[in-house]
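Before the break, one more example. Copy the sequence into your notebook; we will annotate it together after we see the structure.
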Amino acid sequence: MTYEDVTLASSLVEAVKNGGEELKILPPFFIYDQTRRYSPEMQRLYEDRAAKG
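Here is what the structure looks like once it is written out:
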C-alpha cells in the first residue's frame, strides 16, 4: 500500500519535553488493507500480544 492509496490519514506523534532536536519519521502503520482485513503488520502485532498472554 502506498501513500497514494490512503484517502484518510491520521498521524501519531510522541514527544518528550526538553527531548532535544532529534526527529524520526517512521513508515506508516496501516490497520486495515484495501480489502478491509488486518494488514500484515497489524496481524503480527495481535499474534505477538496473544503469544505473550
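Residues 41 and 47 are 10 Å apart (CA to CA). The chain has one helix and no strands. Try to locate both features in your own notes.
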